[in-house]
Amino acid sequence: MSLDADQVVERRRLKRRLTLWRVIGVVAVVAALLAGMGRFDLDSGDHVARILVQGIIIDDQDRDKALAAVAKDDHAKALIVKIDSPGGTYVGGEALFETIRQVADKKPVIALMGTTATSAGYMTALAADHILARSSSLTGSIGVIMQTADVTKLLDKVGIKPISVKSAPLKAQPNPLEEFSPAARKATEDVVADYYDMFLDVVEERRKLPRDTVKALADGRVFSGRQALANGLIDAIGAETEARKWLDETHKIAESLPVQDVEVGDDDEPWRKWVDSKIEKVLFSERLSLDGVISLWQPNLW
Predict the structure, then answer these.
(1) pTM of this structure
(2) pLDDT (tens digit, 9 = 90+) per residue, 219-235?
(3) Active site residue 171
(4) Hey, what CATH topology would domain 46-142+220-301 get?
């Protein structure tokens, strides 16, 4: 009798253990599915992809990979690029422009300007097939800038004399620790002028404007959305609703098709995105100095 009782107790324990492990297994499977949902969104059916370009634009491999995936995804019928950026490095803007154009080779791309889409932010919009802005959006600021400082007189006052040994006079110029010589200034101005011409080429080609008109608009000024429309820098005033109407009327992509946001980077480490966003401004000045020429509206404010 006692043996039977022991067996019953043991069986009950075994059932409880099995139930526990089954629950753990179900929870693990559900967690894995939830974790993977964001990563595999683009495989869940026909949709319109949407990517957000905000803050300072730099060369970003994760972003480029995400856009390349959109280009290859047959379920992504179009791409909406939402821009809220004052610009960034010229290389960053150029890379983003080229990557979006690769998407545009496969499917329609439309740009939506938010509060600000200036400098490299405007260059990003130029990659789209159609550009929309709010009436009060700020855009334009077409141009580039390279900044430096001459602190040699300040160092003289505190008794410090910088010494450099270099292979040629223009090596490491401009340099805050050396006087900005006429030759160094000329060489730097030539570089800035070349970047500027490249920017003008993009505007002229994408907006189909005469070169003289582009030069007149590309004096560094910003435009409201209404001014940009009047000057041919954008196509229409509107937001996402108008973007969907354009896709429907021009490319027969139904307004009822769902929108799915493009995830950039590793979804397994969301904390890293949060940390990066907090320290972005701290690191930005260093990243700019590495890139050199920038295309940014009001660089001193960022």
Answers:
(1) 0.78
(2) 999 999 999 999 999 99
(3) yes
(4) 2-enoyl-CoA Hydratase; Chain A, domain 1 (3.90.226)
